[in-house]
Design a protein that fits this description.
Blueprint (H helix, E strand, L loop, with lengths): L1 H6 L1 H4 L4 H8 L7 E5 L12 E6 L6 E6 L5 E9 L10 E6 L7 E6 L4 E3 L2 E4 L7 H11 L4 E2 L4 E2 L4 E5 L23 E2 H17 L21 H16 L7 E4 L26 E5 L18 H21 L3 H20 L21 H15 L2 H14 L22 H6 L4 H22 L14 H19 L5 H11 L26 H6 L12 E2 H4 L21 E2 L14 H14 L4
Parallel strand pairs: 1-7, 11-14
Antiparallel strand pairs: 1-2, 2-5, 3-4, 3-6, 4-5, 6-8, 9-10, 12-13, 13-14, 15-16
């Protein structure tokens, strides 16, 4: 850990000198013990399990020391693990301190051992502010007008292809969000991000504040910031659906990938000159591609259905909150129009690539139709929508990534079929039992996978594993809300803890969260590359199977790996700008995590 100590911890040392001292007290290689905990911390009633690992065996007990009094606040047994850990260490242990409930700041002590990573926090308000960070990250991803840079960008979006109009016809599709570290825009992800932020507000309205105007500038406008951000997505979806038979699903392609660039000047060239028009792909339900790489497609129900769900949710929220009712009706009309399109051309449309074989490879759609129909029934009371929703729910069942040890990039997207939750309160007890069983059976399958290792993470480490993990956590949260069954709560908290530092690398997976800890810094974004400005709140892609990592094109680490001592032949993560597969913050993953942060803020 020498590189990590002097690479990122140095600039944080001024803020947390006590933590700095504990980290740089170097031990000899044989007697170092590494402890992994949730770096944000725990609520009093949480299950609290730290993971320790070392190359020498441990026995006896551990102590939790109150940092304020230097007294022992808790003593527990060191429990050897009977399952493997991710890493090159010989011994792994569980340190259970669930019975420590008193609010405070603590450190862990194992008598006679040097410990790295020992600070602990217990408080019921630790997560209160982080939803705002995630929304601020979304603001930084905005296209059209970007409040982070206070500049306009991509005003030439876009010139359409594959549409009923002549190719290269201009239709204004400015707006939306840059997808990740690049500046592409996808309805595949934008529709989900919009809908999920609206549902986060419906579930936890008291968590969200009004600190910014609709444009993203500081100042209140009477609308919670999460809804300002969701409206940014709603407005873009309205632009993408300019006529009853037209739905644009992607703006730009991987011709964007020409190096670091700020949004106000994009030198990519789509044959209309640099920093000019970008291509806008119209959904046709058929394979597309302007170069040798062709997408697969059987219809448009995934993107049209998910967009209909987002627009129906926009109508519900704007109507209930007493906002602009004319705008609410525009949302409802668009939702119904999009749903008709989806019904007429059932199937899936994938993302398009140009110069590389990577694209969003979604190949499911019944879950999106279930979601759209459920939200349209809530909006209109039309029972045909409810019948449709139950039909599509039956078709979908338990279908997800859960049954797979691996899958193609975004093949089973969204990673949570939130439609089962949306439908649950609308149906009779027989259907409710089925919907709950879909969630429960999936959770059980992941739990069987999780029991194979000490960290108990039940997901496949595919590209964007953190997005998958967030949605599995939320599946458990929603299952609890549906049924009142708490049996998976401890499992869920363990996965939460993985995201916040209880992982082999001892880092959180959100930029800038928490400020006093190890978090992703050298992220794969132009903002960081060109300005060195950190943007808190972004969820990075996360660990990936080494087998996938070794076969991706264009990966190149730019500095010595600060986590080299913790890498293994199974799964890897790098805080390195050259690793787009594990350290690139994504817009859609962050938007989905808004609901997780709202839940953790204690809105229950």
């Amino acid at each position: 850990m020498q590189v990590r100590t002097f690479h990122t911890q140095f600039r944080r040392a001024v803020l947390v000198p006590a933590l700095w001292i504990s980290l740089v007290m170097a031990a000899q290689p044989g007697d170092q013990v590494y402890v992994r905990t949730n770096l944000v911390g725990y609520s009093s009633d949480d299950a609290k399990m730290a993971i320790a690992f070392s190359n020498q065996s441990l026995n006896g007990h551990f102590n939790i020391i109150d940092s304020a009094t230097a007294e022992i606040a808790f003593t527990g047994n060191i429990i050897p693990s009977v399952v493997r850990g991710y890493g090159p260490f010989q011994y792994y242990y569980q340190l259970d301190f669930s019975d420590l409930r008193k609010t405070g700041t603590y450190r862990m002590d194992i008598p006679g051992m040097n410990i790295e990573g020992s600070s602990l926090y217990i408080d019921s308000n630790l997560y209160k502010s982080y939803a705002a960070d995630l929304i601020a990250f979304m603001q930084q991803q905005r296209c059209g007008y970007n409040p982070f840079f206070d500049t306009l960008c991509h005003q030439g979006d876009g010139r359409v292809v594959y549409g009923p109009m002549r190719d290269a016809t201009f239709i204004d599709v400015s707006g939306g969000w840059h997808d990740a570290g690049d500046q592409l825009k996808y309805l595949i992800t934008g529709s989900n991000a919009t809908a999920r932020m609206l549902m986060a507000y419906q579930l936890y309205p008291d968590v969200f504040h009004d600190l910014f105007t609709g444009s993203g500038k500081p100042g209140a406008n009477g609308v919670p910031d999460v809804l300002d951000e969701a409206r940014w997505g709603l407005d873009w979806i309205l632009k993408l659906h300019p006529a009853p038979d037209v739905l644009i699903h992607q703006v730009g392609d991987d011709r964007d990938h020409i190096g670091w660039k700020l949004p106000a000047y994009d030198p990519s060239d789509y044959s209309w000159g640099k920093n000019s028009y970008r291509v806008a792909y119209v959904a046709t339900g058929k394979p597309q591609g302007l170069n040798k790489y062709q997408s697969e497609a059987t219809g448009i129900s995934n993107i049209a259905g998910r967009s209909a769900a987002a627009m129906a949710l926009g109508y519900q929220v704007w109507t209930k909150c007493g906002f602009d009712q004319v705008y609410a009706m525009r949302c409802l009309m668009a939702a119904e129009s999009l749903y008709r399109m989806a019904k007429q051309d059932e199937g899936y449309q994938q993302g398009n690539s140009y110069g590389a074989p990577y694209r969003y490879m979604e190949d499911t759609w019944t879950d999106d139709m279930e979601w759209a129909a459920a939200e349209l029934f809530k909006a209109t009371g039309n029972t045909q929508y409810l019948e449709d929703a139950v039909h599509y729910a039956t078709l979908t069942g338990e279908l997800s990534w859960i049954q797979k040890d691996t899958s193609a990039h975004y093949q089973y997207y969204p990673f949570l079929n939130i439609a089962h939750y949306a439908l649950y309160d609308l149906v009779d007890d027989t259907v409710k039992l089925r919907l709950a069983a879909y969630y429960r059976n999936g959770i059980e399958m992941t739990l069987r996978r999780a029991k194979r290792d000490i960290f108990q993470i039940g997901i496949p480490f595919i590209w964007c594993s953190n997005n998958v993990l967030v949605d599995l956590i939320l599946q458990i949260v929603l299952y609890e809300r549906m049924t009142g069954d708490p049996r998976y709560h401890t499992y869920m908290l363990g996965m939460r803890d993985w995201l916040f530092g209880r992982n082999p690398w001892g880092t959180t997976m959100f930029t800038g969260i928490p400020r006093h800890s190890d978090y992703p810094v050298d992220v794969h974004t132009s903002t960081w590359a060109l300005t060195r400005r950190e943007v808190p709140g972004g969820l990075v892609d996360g660990p990936i199977y080494v087998g996938i990592y070794n076969n991706l094109l264009g990966l190149r680490l730019t500095h010595p790996d600060p986590y080299a001592d913790f890498q293994n032949p199974y799964v890897t993560y790098h805080d390195d700008i050259g690793d787009y597969s594990t350290n690139e913050p994504t817009m859609d993953g962050t938007a989905c995590a808004v609901m997780l942060m709202a839940y953790l803020a204690g809105a229950e």
